[in-house]
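Two quick folds needed for the group meeting slides. Do the first one here.
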Amino acid sequence: MATVDDVRRQFRNPPPEGRPMMRWWWFGPSIERDEIDRELEAMAAAGLGGAEVAFVYPMGPVTAQFGSPEFLELVGHAARTARRLGLRFDVTLGSGWSYGGAHVGPEYAARQLHWDRREIGAAAYDVPIVAGWPGDEFVAAYVGDGPAGAPSSYVEVPASDGIIHVPAGGQPREVLIATSRVTGQQVKRTAVGAEGLTLDHYSAAAAQVHIRQVAEPLLLAATPELLGSVFCDSLEVYGGDWTPGIFDEFVKRRGYELRPRLFELLVDTEGSRQLRIDFGRTLSELYEDNFLKVFQQWAAGYGVPFRIQSYGEPPATMSSYRHADLFEGEGWGWTRIPETRWASSAANLYGRSVVSAEVWTWVHSPSFRATPLDLQGEAHEHFPSGVNQLIGHGWPYSPTDGPGLGWIFYAAGALDDRNPWWPSATALFRSLHRLSWLLQQGTPVRPVKIYIPASDAYAAVRTGHAEPLNLYRVARRLIPESAPRMIREAGLDFDLIDDDALEVLDPADAQLVVVTEGTATPPETQRWLDAVVAAGGKVITDVSTLADHLPRPPLTPQQDVGVVHRRLDDGDFYFVANTGPEIRTLTFDQPLEHWRALSDDIAVTGTITLHPYESAVLIPTTTPAADAAAPAQQVHALQTGWSVAFGNDSRPITLPHRWEDDPALTTYSGSATYRTEIELPDTTDCLLLDFGPGEPVAPDSESYLPSNSYRVLITPPVGVAADIWLNDTHCGSLWAPPYQVDLTAAARPGVNELRIVVHNTAANALSADHHLLEAAADVTARYGRRFDLQHIEHAANYLNSGLLTVPRIIRQA
């Protein structure tokens, strides 16, 4: 906790905590010391806080095989260089995802329960147990009276000496044979030398093998004292619903035998729903005990935090996060329930002040199409979801002397200094640093709780059906989308809660709890809900009536405006973000301090205007608001006298000027300098250079983009960023609305030279870069198919570079 004065004082120059970081992809491994140093220095110069190293597939000839002494020495060199530069350095504990590799044999590999169904007659049968695939292990066999699919009950049949002994019986009958089978899933996107099976996340022995063979060498190479954390990406172990020893674990945890009733995972019976709930719950606990706790405790032994994206398959609960040190999510959408909300709710409930998110994962695909405004806009979607530490996805390691644009990751933005708009990156990252740091102060105010229907989600997962073993995804589907949207659009916030979280959440602190109608709740949970009501709270089951029960929000809600309310020792503050393409105006009943992340201005006001994708920080105050009357203005359009220079080639032009309209510039990525002269009779007034609001973009204009690929819905008047100079004085950088720069301090009476340096994206060059496709084909031929470059054929879609409007001088008192 902190005071308002503390936060106000540090907001302009916050401490390093909260600086955006980047996931740093090392391809191959094909890494050199000099390039490691150059890229880390570029990160530090841009104001980034550090790098999280991820080891992935090759993009060129391998120079140091994964796990080799040469490779580990480079990891250590990178860690030491990062420390020298004041950067945080994190390491992913494996190559690709999920954890695994050549050290994972069938005894440690992820497994799936496989069923063989056979209809038989009345005769007795002796059926040899045959391993259909290497690593197959017989589990049990059952027989039921009736034709295939008809028996309502089955009994286990004996097996000995490699033979299943099916006794004689009625006719017809069905036999079910359960086999534990290695899923066969290979670790995805691996570096050379890291290939192999995905490990069993329910097995402590498997976790220990991976620690010995992969994780510990990486940690020791980086040096524990130099590590910010060690990292595990999202859980993507598909179909892994079995592990040796689960019969013993089930009876120990649930109090009854699973083996006699195992068939109920496949067949509906009177008690099969509860058995599936108990089975799913057991898998979640095994994941916590034998994977999460094992890695956390091992890392803690070296004094290093363990950070994880704990959702997916195996079925991690929201409260599973409590067994890690640092909680991370991904996915944007502040009115929905993305994985970031899964993580931020757990952090609030279990007392973690920092919540990170993998951000910009698919931003404006393909690589190099993302603009600084895209990055700002998506960050503003994450902050209202409870995130306060951004891990950018990401920075591709790429040799400086390589052909074309170099190397990119197959499905993400390339957010590094190859982007022509990189001169704006420092100001962008500084503003995001301010907001991230600020949102780590105090505690969140979230008056509404939404119960996660975990029992219903477990029950929905049935062997042989398409429903994934992904508790987060199934539970999200079971919660009506209208519930989080109604809460957020009302200007309020919420936490998700689950059965385990109730152990740390006082019923008296739950003002309003949403439990979807028909949701199954364990007896302990029902008692807790009753205690909420007894303490004066409300439990709502009819989501259609939720709006009638929501408390009054502290700020009047506005469309597209996300609100974060945090409490300090002696007051509150509010982060507000306009997440849409239209201007929104907020009016308040009391005066508020208005802080901007992009400037040092602090004003007291009763009304603020949020431009598209703009944010602000608001602090209630007793200071009277300033006069809201708009000053008189004189506007002069700078229509004539413009020239543009690409390099030394200067020529006169007429505005607007779009590079893609010139066939010679359609594939040009870089900068251009626009010049004109301004005659100013005096400089006693405030002088603003205004470029206008930009043009709206139809949401479906780039229909190839997946739903999780973020992009803003305006075409900026400056494509895509610009630096403004008046009389050789730098007046500011532009990449986001409002597209205005204050020229007052640089202006002088008489003739003034205005220079606008416009930077576009590298997508224009990408559209003509055949090297990337050739490199992908070459490494596929050499190392096997490990990736596909996604959406690269759309690199030239809807590009707008240049000075796309006629700037105006606004003179006001």
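Then this one, please, same format:
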Amino acid sequence: MLEGPNLYFPRAAIKLTLDISGLAAVSEETAKRFAGRIGLRSARPGSPDSGFRQRFALRAVGRLVRAVALESGATRLAVRVRPTSDPHRIVVAYPWRHRTRAQEMGRAVADVLDAVLTGDVDEAVGAAAARVADTEPGPAPTTLTPRVPVVAVTGTNGKTTTSRMIAHLARTDGRHVGWSSTDGIYVDGELVEAGDFSGPSGAGRVLAQPGVQLAVTETARGGILLKGIGLTRNDVSVVTNVTADHLGLHGIDTLEQLAEVKGVVPRITRSSGWAVLNGDDPRVLAMRATLRARPWVFSRDSASPAVRAVLDDGGRATTLIDGWISVIAPDADPDPLIELVDVPMTLSGLSHFNVENALAAASAGLAIGLPRAAVVEGLRTFAPGPEHNRGRMNIFSVPRPGGAATVIIDNAHNEASLEALTEVMAGLRPEGSRLLLGLGAVGDRTDELITALGEIGARASDVVAIGHKKKYLRGRTEAELEDLLRAGAESVGVAHVPAYPTEVDCLAALVGQALPGDVVGLMTHAEQDGVFAWIAEHDGTVDSPDVLREKVRAAAG
């Protein structure tokens, strides 16, 4: 039950995953008889279990859904049919206005497919339509139409940081801001309810908070696929990027399919609003083709073809010019907002990901109507520590005999985010010091992705260890994860990678080996509170923007 806009329709829909093994296996004569009953008079089903039969099944099942709907009294029904990686499974989706009747139609369609095997197709279609017609309509969708402006943020990496930055910009302007995310529901920076609210319920919870003047919603892949988006529209959308993560789940096997899912968010941006797109990511930029809204791209390259193309279409662009975050409009001189070195989140430009997040947040803030001065001040005052951006590239100094080591805590969870973490680690390492990395993986990632994490981590660091995440094994064993991560490390010549039962144990072991000037990075998901408590217990302190700037300069020589 998809309660709101989704991968298939811009409104609530039913998604059926159907086993078509029976239809694929029956004789050509039986398949033709089925086709005739649903109005496909000239169909050519092809031989059993052939590619032609699968194509026939896609067409026939879509026609079956329409036939049942028509015979049950519906005037017309939009239907989407898609293949999956399994040739005997297909996905069918159709919009709904009445829950109970729409669910019954799904069951009825499945029963007709079963009847193909017995040859009782004529009776089955009529019986299915009668069942649907006799079913009580049931309640309507719960999709909300927002009464306050909404900024919706999606993407693979950077969603949470970008959402937090946008909320901070709006609060700098004095607005009461509600924000939903993977961490919980926040109002004006205060946690109202903990939990993962990146699905449709999060948007509803935020809009229900009294006094909220602006809503910022973090929208994850899983929520779009399993529940739909909880709002009929947004005023500004942001797509940070599309990189490999969660592939192989819920029928999403490729980056192109993942981009299609993320593209639902800008697709429902109102026509008077703005869709803020990463111009350096071709899959994100391609979402322009589906927009009703006006395009606003961000790019680290002011000469990017994406910037030129969007400006030619009357859009906007936020980019870097001479080290300044600048906004460009058609037929106008660039507007320099703030120097990159004065945006603490970018670590003096060291963190390319956070440079992009800052560009995206500035674009969204201006697009939603925040004053220029508030956007500039918000970028200047949003700090990279736990106070503003907990768990995302938080950097500490932890005492060691004779000096201090740098410790970076980050929610890195895929290849791109791990590369971003190691990039920052390298940028903070003085000459002659070492990089020590605590690896970890969530169990529902593919074997290939987990192995790649081991390879990336081992190649980029001098010392590597594994810190397990018992809360996120998700069907795997610790031994399986160790084997995959070690296989990746061994592919780049690193053997004997130790493993520790928790993230805290891993951090303690790495810091225990660290010398003054060394940089320790930890991929942290399961034990964020425990990790921060351990750092505090060992007299670690959050690096201020000034301290970070000095570390970057020292590392650069």
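Slide caption for protein two: Residues 391 and 554 are 25 Å apart (CA to CA).
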